[in-house]
């Protein structure tokens, strides 16, 4: 009789242990938020432990390959976003016939962009701009911030333009696109970025203005120190306070609509999306592209190492963007781990050795 009672007590104790077991994450030493493809390239021991751990317990914290491939293709994401009411985009097409498409676009628009379909950081972009004496040809190479490597030529005829395009639009698929004359702040082209970040339960918006290099035509360029500027500050300088608030409200509304669409297509699979917009001279907003895992600020080396040695001019960005952004990403990871933990405890009895942890759940 005592033996039967002991066995019943033992079973109840084991069941209690299952319900109260703690799943502790391994130490994370790497960027878990970037993408699974990039993450698998990491070689750090701690990060490999973390990857193995999330795969074992099926904790989904990375964007899917399908989604990453969608947003990396400017043509595909453009077709998708076009279906959302109220969103304008520059006219664009895959560049398949330089001899016919380039003259057609130059006939319709005073400025034309030719850019890689899968490009990033505004590298390898050709800009064609009409002037009273012909057409200016600009080529912005991979090392964009090296002015000596840029190409500028004035073409007096269309055949000259075509020859220049054929010389530089090579070795990959390009898009041809309507060029938009954007406003300038301190002689730098202005681009608006809205970052939507999920904490696992709801989306949070951040916004910033990126300034391109002065005296160029491309707004979104490889980000250098201090080229990120407060949105309201720039818009107010350009248009006044009332119009600035109106434009920002529209930017956030459009970003929410895009996020809702993509989140429905990939439910729970995406935690961070950044949208790039530009304004034309009439203040119309144009959508440019979607970015995944895109930080708001390009911190200086002084901000990163040593991490707490912050310059006075950096503190506002640190407080307004880096800390809130990182906090939401951490909340997302914690939410995913909590969901996986609860699901796992329904079906299994985990037997995990305690490890050092950034979360204790």
Automatic annotation (TrEMBL):
<dbReference type="InterPro" id="IPR026838">
    <property type="entry name" value="YheC/D"/>
</dbReference>
<protein>
    <submittedName>
        <fullName>YheC/YheD family protein</fullName>
    </submittedName>
</protein>
<dbReference type="Pfam" id="PF14398">
    <property type="entry name" value="ATPgrasp_YheCD"/>
</dbReference>
């Amino acid at each position: 009789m005592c033996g039967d009672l002991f066995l019943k007590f033992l079973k109840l104790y084991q069941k209690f242990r299952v319900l109260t077991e703690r799943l502790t994450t391994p130490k994370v030493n790497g960027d878990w938020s970037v993408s699974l493809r990039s993450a698998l390239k990491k070689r750090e021991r701690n990060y490999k432990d973390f990857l193995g751990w999330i795969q074992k317990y099926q904790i989904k914290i990375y964007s899917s390959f399908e989604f990453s491939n969608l947003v990396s293709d400017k043509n595909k994401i453009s077709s998708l976003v076009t279906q959302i009411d109220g969103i304008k985009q520059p006219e664009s097409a895959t560049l398949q016939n330089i001899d016919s498409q380039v003259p057609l676009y130059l006939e319709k628009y005073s400025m034309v962009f030719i850019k890689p379909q899968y490009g990033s950081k505004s590298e390898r972009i050709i800009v064609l701009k009409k002037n009273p004496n012909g057409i200016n040809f600009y080529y912005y190479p991979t090392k964009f911030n090296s002015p000596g490597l840029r190409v500028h030529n004035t073409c007096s005829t269309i055949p000259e333009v075509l020859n220049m395009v054929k010389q530089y639009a090579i070795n990959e698929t390009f898009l041809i696109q309507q060029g938009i004359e954007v406003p300038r702040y301190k002689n730098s082209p202005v681009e608006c970025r809205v970052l939507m970040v999920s904490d696992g339960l709801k989306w949070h918006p951040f916004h910033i203005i990126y300034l391109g290099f002065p005296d160029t035509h491309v707004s979104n360029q490889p980000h250098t120190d201090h080229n990120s500027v407060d949105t309201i500050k720039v818009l107010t300088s350009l248009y006044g306070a009332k119009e600035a608030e109106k434009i920002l409200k529209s930017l956030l509304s459009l970003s929410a609509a895009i996020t809702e669409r993509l989140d429905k297509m990939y439910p729970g699979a995406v935690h961070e999306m950044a949208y790039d917009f530009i304004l034309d001279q009439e203040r119309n907003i144009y959508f440019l592209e979607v970015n995944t895992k895109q930080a708001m600020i390009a911190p200086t080396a002084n901000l990163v190492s040593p991490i707490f040695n912050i310059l006075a001019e950096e503190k506002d960005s640190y407080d307004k963007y880096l800390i809130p952004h990182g906090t939401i990403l951490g909340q997302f990871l914690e939410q995913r781990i909590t969901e996986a933990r609860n699901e796992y405890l329904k079906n299994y009895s985990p037997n995990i050795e305690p490890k050092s942890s950034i979360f204790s759940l």
